[in-house]
Amino acid sequence: MSDFYQDGVITNFHNLTKRKLEELEYDLQVFSGRRSMGLILPSLFSELEGPALSKIVDELTKVPYLEEIVIGLDRADRDQFLFAREFFSRLPQRHRILWNDGPRLTALDEELKKENLSPMEPGKGRNVWFCAGYTLASRRTTVVGLHDCDIVTYNREMLARLMYPVANPNFHYDFCKGYYARVADGKFNGRVGRLLVFPLLKSLQIVYGNSDFLEYLRSFRYPLSGEFAMRTQVLNDLRIPSDWGLEIGVLSELHRNTATKRICQVDIADNYDHKHQPMSEDDASNGLQRMSIDITKALYRKLAILGVNITSESFRILKATYYRNALDMIDGFEHDARMNGLKFDRHSEESAVELFSGAIMEAGSAFVDTPSEKPFIPSWSRVQSAFPDMLERLHDAVEEDNKGNV
User: Is pLDDT above 50 for 272?
Assistant: First the structure.
């Protein structure tokens, strides 16, 4: 039976009737009179030179309901920042670029570091955190969405469907997560979600016992998706990882701070493809190996916060349990692929599972060996307690950069 007819931990919105984009956008324009909407785009400068982001910007120029677009720009020097200002200038909406490597934001970051309130390492989490700070400081939106800048198959219907449940004033949702099928070029993608997260969540339940948190995470169709929307006020109290554990970290914080009846997920695309990370078998600091370690550490941390006794001895049991569950799931994926006429490379699938098995042990060692590690970036509520004027100063610094005084 379809889960549409079953009770779930969170509400699931299906794309049943393929409602016209024009109708969705008309409704969102009406909603914007009561709930102003913004968008956060965390980006590397290299993505401005790729094929995806230019198309994304072209699509966003047609979006009629956005009040503000906040762009986080990483790994950019002065000339590249100036290029980015020109690149995004065709957006008709009010938009601001956070030059995260520029002197103004670097100075604020150094000040925060002195009080241990700054992100510990560069990455998407740090980028999103500063964008969240500017969004709070701007005070122009009551609903904000976020999506990645490497979506090759992007169209603005994704954004409309993502924003709708939170923007509709007749709905009660504070947070919406996007999901979609990961199929492209005639094969399954999404290896980290399919081959690590899903079997690992099941294995964590077997080894450490079931919990509301694990059941909650398993209810998401695609917990690693980089697309979500929320009430802007939610940003105040989010404590997120600065590494690849961002998406799991956000869901964990929502579970802690928000009633599950106020959380939903929505089918936003029939076809989704983005930049793929290399497996990076020989380098644990890059690619899918780094991603899998960070994600697994994020899960260990959350379970420990919930009082689960995670010991070094249990990781071998977890690894063995995960390996068996992952292989069983590969059988299902292979059958699904054959049914749908998709290519399926069982060798590469099992090779990925072997890599992820090692990541489970590697993440366990890191978790046990660094008990004093600060896994989360402090919330903006805490930053404002230490620096009551920090949001205003962040806002002013971004405004100065975007005026041309660089």
Answer: yes
